Amino acid sequence: MDFNQMIKLKVKEIMNTNVVKAHPDTSLLDVCKKMVSNKRSEALILLKKKDEEEVQGIITLSDIAEIFKKNIDLMNPVKEYMQPYVYFFSPDELVIKARDFMLDKKIGSLPIWDGKRIIGVVDTVTLRDTYYKRTEELSNQLFDILNHLHEGVCVVDEQGIVTFWNSSAERLYRVKAEELLGKKLSDYFPTALLDKVLKQKKAIENITHSPKKGTYVAISAKPLFSEHELIGAVSSERDITEITKLSMELEQANDRVRFLEQEYNKLTRDQYQIGEIVGKSKKFTEAIILAQQVAKVNINVLITGESGTGKEVFARAIHRESGRKGDFIPINCSAIPYNLLESELFGYEGGAFTGALSKGKKGKFQLADEGTLFLDEIGEMPMEMQAKLLRVLEDGEVQPIGGEKSIKINTRIIAATNQDLEKMMEEGRFREDLYYRLNVVSIHLPPLRERKEDVPLLIDRFVKEFSNIHGYSIASISTDALKILTDYEWKGNIRELKNTIERLVVLSKGALITKDMIPLEILKSFQNKEERLEEEMKEYDLEKVLAYTEKNMIQEVMKITNWNKKRQQRFLTFLEVPCIIN
């Protein structure tokens, strides 16, 4: 197995298919026996519905050991002690992603779900035998690769002490690795760029640098982080004679770097990244599985759903899973004036129109070459622009404004809308041919009100996220506050929920989030619903309720007396219930 195969190794290739499953009413003792006999440390608690399984929870031998210490009767049903929330992965997920997820969640096993049932488990033993064992071999292979690179490579720790110096660096600077390893780089190169990178904690890309008198190199240097903590820096250096070969690549890289900086700042400002997609409701799980299936296939995708349901989050996830080499480039079709939309999408040549940059500008299609272009709010695109977009999708090339030649592109399109495009087609406001070009695969994201069971999961995720962002200890939430938030309709969906939780975390300052902190409009909605239920109860016919209760009582007496009429009459007379038995 080579390095690329190791990285692309999928969960289904290593998972253990020996899975212990139990019904929620099974006793703790029987579940424990099952785990021991199957040599498993966990059991999945589930219900079977036809050919599908509904996961209810999970319990481990460690859980049962703690229960045993408390002298709890092991004949009690497992459902009373299982952990209700279960994380699971698709069999087509990468092993490295499953490993990172297990480390992040601090769990020893990860059930594998194929969309209908649990088909396997990935655990620490499996990872040790298939992944970690191979990691050591690959690290040696990587060491050999770095030593055979044409570029000089230097790695320092957080103190600036050299930990790696390859053979090309030895030739470039005429300093042996034995002389440098374990010593400060600045002692040999006073103007070393890596010291600046360590201080600023920022990357420096492709610049001309003189680390030592008489020596000039083209160098790129980046800080190294582990779980957001600086652990060192690495540089890649070429002799100055290589500069001419790099000049054209540098110009292209500058455009991409500027755009990525803008996108990074936008994401940081909006705080819209939620990490792993959270959800266990059937509709949402189906959307996740469909996204995973289409990610690797180079086809256009249309994502539909109300505002705030996470359409861009899904689009980014599909791009990440696709393995495409290029970038994810988003554009909101409703946020850009029509007269600027064409230049934003296709770019322009220098001096193409008044106000144009003298050197021209690349359009979003070119920036997304070999990557993904996300067309948000596609329903807002003007008809004339739709025709031009269709031409690009058919020809696979764009022509910048003012340009004479077309440029070939390989760009995947993911479009999104909260509108009914089929209705717009009937009204003549959206092109039918463009719709079928975009809608090769459609993924619908249900609104939050249709996935109530996911609300507590999202609340937990956002509470932790904003507690960390604002520097608070992890806040907790009271039962009544959680009930109110779960019951709310969330017309703004995940975006509204996220903003509300951030407000509550800030108000709580890491303490308990209580009912009185909840915004008035949410409380009022909850109270109105409670009042409606009370009004409905008042509308019940009291005589009918009494008659129904009396009938049920008589039926119970008939059962108790074994249908003996005399005993029934004495029993009912004692209870002062009118006898209606014939």
Automatic annotation (TrEMBL):
Domain PAS: start-end pairs: 138-185
Coiled coil (residue ranges): 243-270
InterPro entries to which the protein is assigned, alphabetical: AAA+_ATPase, AAA_lid_NorR, CBS_dom, CBS_dom_sf, P-loop_NTPase, PAS, PAS-like_dom_sf, PAS_fold
GO biological process, one term: regulation of DNA-templated transcription
Domain Sigma-54 factor interaction span(s) in chain numbering: 277-506
Keyword Coiled coil on entry: yes
Keywords linked to the UniProt accession: ATP-binding, CBS domain, Coiled coil, Nucleotide-binding
GO molecular function ontology, one term from the record: ATP binding
Sequence ranges assigned to domain CBS in this UniProt record: 15-74, 82-137
Pfam families: AAA_lid_14, CBS, PAS, Sigma54_activat
Keyword Membrane applies: no
Name under which the protein is recorded: PAS domain S-box-containing protein
Source organism of this protein record: Garciella nitratireducens DSM 15102
